[in-house]
What does this fold into?
Amino acid sequence: MKFNKWILILILGAIALVIISLPKNNIPSLSKSHEDSLAVMKHRQEKDISMKEQEDSPIKNKENFKGLSYFPFSSAWQIEFELEKNKKADKIALPMNDGTKEDILYIGDIKAQINGQDVSLKLYQHDNGDFFLPFKDKTASTETYGGGRYLDIPLINLNGKKLKADFNWAYFPFCAYNPEYACPVPPASNQLNFRIPAGEKN
It folds into this structure.
């Protein structure tokens, strides 16, 4: 009996040593795409709460508000652009939907190939340093707000001349819910002739 007991202890010890010595990278972990999807889902839930409860929400009938609608998350709409900065960043007057204009920093153009097409979009910058991309695609009016959508791109998404834009974060301007708000109109260069089925929808 003593012999069998020690054999069992040795076997268990060997198994424990094998487990401990396994490389850490063999331990399963969430993929980057899955992490991004979870972050988007969390943001959408928080935005619904904000739209329903915040005093400055553009939603007029908050009691009947059931939440916003979105396209399913898709990593296919995480696009890496190349940023061509202006030699000198200048503030320009961006037209608003009510006929007024608002000053914003025009930082340059971002370029990529999407759906087999060469795309060049004008990129702006918020006062906090993050980028602002107003755009309009073929989902406008039928599937999304007719005036176009917006995308805020964190400054940390810029790596050298490469800028990652995740259209799963695309959202409607406040004027889509409430005509009392004025919002920037996407420039002609940012009006795309194909669908971007990502982000917020009707």
